TrEMBL record:
InterPro entries: Cyt_c_oxase-like_su1_sf. This is Cytochrome C oxidase subunit I. It comes from Haloarcula salina. The chain crosses the membrane at residues 20-39, 51-75, 82-101, 107-128, 140-160, 180-203, 247-269, 281-301, 316-341, 362-379, 391-415. It comes from the Archaea. The keyword Lipoprotein does not apply. The lineage of its organism: Archaea, Methanobacteriati, Methanobacteriota, Stenosarchaea group, Halobacteria. The keyword Membrane applies. Keywords: Membrane, Transmembrane, Transmembrane helix.
Length: 439
């Protein structure tokens, strides 16, 4: 069973509906992104990337940070009003970007990009102001850098969207290809993986209860300082076409993520609790990140500027294995945890209440985990055979089943145990403004 930390004060966070709304909308983006990939294949690549990385992963990050920065930091969220506003702006923006790519409507892109930028910047300002009152540790430092990367990546994305519609970059003497490389680098290695590293530094020791080791603490402190600078160097080198700068940044990024993977793997190996869906998915992520780091180090040393090596080699191992399974595992704890705190925590000791891991169906969790690992394996196999298209199609179908089971399992937690109906949760009692009042 997942532990319930005794020093967490959930009252300092936003209303339950705020993070859960982000997670539910993010699940919709996940299902849509996998469906687009299964149906359109490479034709829907840009739309799928924005549905999954921006829509699912980034909305999940936004909801999680909005909840847990004030809760774990022991400070009040700076503004509940801003926390409510950020989701519709960002979600409409991300959906509009995906629609623009899928439908071939370039004029829609800068409109959607404006909404996405506004949502991301509102979020960064709100959580950033909240972080100012938090004691700096490994997690807080990573989250602070992730907010900086949110600002940079959305600004670069807006420039790319505007260029696709009216062609401004060439007139300004800028290379679209270089800006695209920098944008993607900041998105994945900046926003997403910096957040992942910070979250794992908090979640892995908390939910494995593994013994602390001084050597791991030293490695984490070094990674905390070096990794964000490596991301800036890698993105800057790609933007400027400077191979030496990009190579140096790439070395630091690979080393930083290898540290994250080694520490996570050691924590999992020394776990003193029963394994949960969260930990099993973290295990897939740890193995994937280690394999990716070993393979990418050589490739980036030779050529850190090529589009083919944008996310290292193979990128599938990083994006699906390293990022996807961390988010899947985290959601299997975070969603039930928030519901449990608001529904059952005040009853503990007075009546029989379910534990956090009792809120979801363990059989469904096992089934969706099996399906998603199988889909991952099929995609890896497809890269090794000459005629991999049938394997990709099969992987898409299996993945769609897996994410449907995953999303259904978490939505069932909200329906069966949540204090509100699902429509009320999404809209808020009397509308989203009901949750927007600042204390």
């Amino acid at each position: 069973m997942s532990g319930i930390p005794g020093d967490i004060d959930a009252s300092s966070g936003p209303p339950m509906t705020v993070p859960l709304r982000h997670f539910v909308v993010g699940l919709a983006f996940l299902v849509a992104g996998v469906a687009v990939g299964a149906v359109d294949g490479r034709a829907g690549h840009l739309a799928q990337v924005h549905l999954l990385l921006a829509g699912w992963v980034c909305l999940t990050i936004m909801g999680a940070m909005t909840q847990f920065v004030p809760v774990w930091g022991g400070v009040a969220l700076y503004s509940r009003r801003l926390a409510v506003v950020q989701l519709p702006l960002a979600a409409l923006g991300f959906a509009g970007l995906a629609a623009g790519f899928l439908g071939g409507w370039p004029l829609l892109l800068p409109v959607a990009g404006t909404l996405a930028l506004a949502g991301a910047w509102v979020f960064a300002y709100n959580v950033g102001r909240t972080l100012l009152g938090v004691d700096v540790d490994v997690t807080a430092a990573h989250f602070g850098w992730a907010l900086v990367f949110f600002l940079l990546v959305t600004a670069a994305g807006f420039g790319l969207a505007l260029d696709r519609a009216v062609g401004i970059l060439s007139a300004a003497g800028l290379s679209r290809g270089s800006l695209l490389l920098a944008h993607a680098t900041l998105a994945v290695f900046g926003v997403v993986l910096t957040t992942v590293a910070g979250a794992l530094a908090q979640l892995a020791p908390m939910f494995t209860q593994a013994e602390d080791r001084r050597s791991e603490e030293s490695l984490q402190r070094a990674e905390t300082v070096a990794y964000p600078l490596g991301v800036l160097a890698l993105a800057g080198g790609r933007l400027l076409g400077n191979e030496l700068l990009a190579r140096a940044g790439g070395v630091v990024v690979v080393a930083g993520l290898a540290v994250v993977a080694v520490v996570l793997a050691r924590r999992l190996a020394g776990a003193r609790v029963d394994w949960t869906p969260m930990l099993t998915r973290y295990a897939v992520a740890a193995v994937s990140l280690l394999a990716w780091a070993a393979l990418t180090a050589v490739h980036w040393w030779r050529d850190p500027l090529s589009y083919g090596g944008l996310f290292g080699r193979p990128s599938l191992v990083l994006l699906v294995g390293g990022v996807g399974f961390v988010v899947l595992g985290t959601l299997y704890h975070v969603v039930p945890f928030i519901v449990w705190v608001h529904r059952y925590s005040d009853r503990l000791g007075f009546e029989a209440v379910p534990m956090i891991d009792d809120l979801y169906d363990g059989r469904v969790a096992a089934a969706d985990g099996t399906a998603l690992v199988l889909a991952y394996a099929l995609l890896l196999a497809a890269q090794r055979v000459a005629l991999g298209r049938p394997l990709v199609v099969a992987a898409g179908a299996v993945a769609l089943v897996g994410v449907a089971l995953f999303a259904g399992n978490l939505v069932a937690v909200l329906v069966e145990h949540g204090p509100r109906s699902l429509p009320s949760l999404l809209l808020g009692r009397g509308g989203p403004s009901a949750d927007a009042e600042d204390p």
